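Sample 3 of the quickstart, ligand iron/sulfur cluster:
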Amino acid sequence: MNSMYTIPTHLNDTPAQHRAAIIQSIRSAKAQGRRPVLLCASYAQQLSWQRTLAREGCGFGVAVTTLPAWVEELWMLHGDGSAIVGPLTRTFAMRQAAHEHVWSKNPTEGTLKLLERCAAEAMPYATTEGCVLSAEELHVAQTVIAYRALLRERNLIEASEACALLAQRDALGAYQPIVVDVAEEDLTHAQCQLLEAAGAAAQFHTAAQPGNEDRADELRSLLAMLYCRQKDDAAIAAQGHVRMAFPMGPTAELPLIGITIEQFAQQGTVIVACKSPAQAFDALAPALVESGISCSFADRMPFGATPMGRHLLNLAGLVNASDTDLLLAADYALNIFAGVNIVSAFRSDQSRRNNRLIQPTEVLSNLANNASESLQGVIGLLEEGRIDDAFDVLAAYAAPISAYGVGPATNSPAVLAKAREACREASSWGLSWQEAIRSLEGASIPTSRSTSEDTEATVRFISLEDCAQLPAASADTVIICNLCANVYPIKEPEDALSTLLRTWGCVRPATPLATMRRTYALACSVARETLVLERALHDGQTEELQPASVFEELVDCYRASLASDVDTNKKLRIPQSLVPFAAVRGEEALVANATNGALATEREADAPVIGEIDASARSFITLGQNRGQETSDLLALSPSQIESYLECPYQWFAKRRLKLDTLEESFSKVERGNFIHSTLEHFYARFQQTIAPKVTEETLEDARNLMQVVFEETAQHQFEKSPGKGRYVPITESERRARDAILPMLQDYLEYETMLLPSFTPQYYEWRYGDAEPFTYAGCTICGSVDRIDVDEQGRAFVIDYKSSLSKAYRLHEKPAKDEPAPTTFVLPHKMQALMYAKVVRDLLGLQVVGTLYLNPLTCEIQGAYDSRIIGLEELPFKKGADATCAQVPWCDVCTFDELINRSEQLVAQRIEELAQGVIHAQPICKDACKYCPVGNCTERLEKRSI
Ligand code: SF4
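Result:
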């Protein structure tokens, strides 16, 4: 079914003709004995027409209203006693219907919104019969029909259904609707049906509203010609009442708008119609106020973008939640209405993220405890379902912030009122308050601010649509901004809803171009003296921007000829006659543009020193020099820190001093390594107490059984450890599987253990050193623990360091390439923690260290160094011959293991001296060093980051 109702789209009626035609329609309706009903596009226009008709002396007996209000009134008089449903009721009744319907896939927020639009527009036409519907469309149709039944149970009705029923009532004949300035595309199918049935008589649509007489001649001519210039019509003569502003790119846009405002605010009121009024106000108002120009803005923002809306959404996501959402908790704590001090917000976020076992209830109590005293009860009240009480507490807390605050926080009373109403309505439909709040996320909240308390501001920032609603010729200057095709695109609506509505024969004339033309023309008609059109010529990537189609159409009125562009300025793409009235601003003045021209003073600062710790900060290179009872002036490090510094000084700085690693308690290789260390330590301690000093073929079965017991105990013990202690705690099924997969690998490793160092026996596990008394190594003090020390009967020792992954980097030296001679001077190996431990073991335990091994129990591999003059390969089951060759001492000019330990220390000492001097260059020892480095933007990086 197509609409029979047609509204002319020409905009060339003069106000006098417009007024006369309407008055004529009123008179003829009265003459026919029908009551004239003037249907206006908005409440503002309704007031304007009421005044006009009163002035003309023909307001008596005429109803001046809007179409929705008239439908409601008609339904009250001629309906079936049911009430027309409001938007909030629709939202929750529809959700209830959607919950009750069985969907193949749970409806998303988007689907729920589509259902609401469908009901609002097409309730009387929704059917599952006589049309072919897809599976999804069938769900939509069935839900809309179920929704209608729910409404009827409560004696409610959709306005669209009321329109369709009223269209069949004889009582309609008593009225003569006269539609004023309402475009056809703004009417739903049901409204068209009603107007058609009522024989809606006069349809007027013009940009020239009452008040046009006061306008500058150039503007009057322009509005009369806009969109309807004929080939033979003469071009409008540019006189400066229409001006152009062309920023070359986005950084010049706001400054140019600001300059234009300043220029015209001296002459009277200025309306700035732009895409983001709040943003433009925030950027320009301070400088304008300094120049003595008062400003205000009115805009709408989504509920979820307001601080109070965000806060309520966060509460809805956290209270009674089954999962822990730490990001939501962080967002919550940083919201102005959470009442959490900023330092506490960051500290508590850190402690929560460092605990992967944290439960939703702990998160909530943590947040509640950190809140200001006056907000302490809110979370508890919400948990108990005392929503109104919780909102009362929030409102009391928010009142002073709203009253004296700045920015969007000032609209919190409106946000809270909307949320409260939604929660009540949702509750009446049996839905939770959380669902009510979530449904509001995209709801539009009016927001406004003004720099002048009492009087109307000189400059008002509003949207183009709001500008179009203002009375004609009501501002001295109108500046319409952002007139680019990408900001105001003209797109045909082709979505799932329009397809479904077409299937039901419910057609809404879709003419987005006509809507845009009308809005733009109405906005232009608000100007009394000057109209300024602004559009950026390039985007942020210096690509040329296309003008909005309506901008081009207005400019067409000034072209000497519509058939030729001979008089067109190529750069600005406007007729030469408009060029004298065009302002252009480039992007070269970066600072002035960025500060909107204010305070553009030049400043110089020293470039930061990179790769070096400043002399004044060198006492902080390492902290905690006090170890045990003694204080030392030496740097306090650990073997792993030294190794990190040797791999790349800047990586050490980033990881150890800036601590760039993640805040979250992780389930990574590091925690897995700690867990394996702990399991092996406990295994050997228990094994030696209860079975034998060493795993052999005879004790292998017992060892495997014991490993299972120890593994399970150690895994359980992880959950008793505090967060931040490197615990290995799986929380998902896949993590649990990853942990459990370690046990068979450790059990298999025991067989390898029977071949490893058969003449040696494990004697020390996780042996600690340097705590009570500083141990000096290479000019610094170190402390830590050695994973394992195996000793033979002659007091010779192997230092063992467990690793859960090994590579060639753990070899003492690398095989020289084929054509290269063997090196003659010893250089430090890439990995050398175990050589540091060797010195500790030698000096503190008095043992003769003959080897240092890195052992991977998961793959049964070893790398490292050993004294090949003392130890035979029967002790060392290397996987490859090259691993054994590259572990041998003597090597180069190092003849004994003692010499190896001493030479390594000397070389490390040279590097520690550099660290003490503050040297922290990015200088990787090899590309492996960069692999897990957290410095994302390092120019020296050799390997892609694989964190
Ligand atoms: S990316 Fe490589 S070079 Fe850069 S700091 Fe990290 S380890 Fe050093």
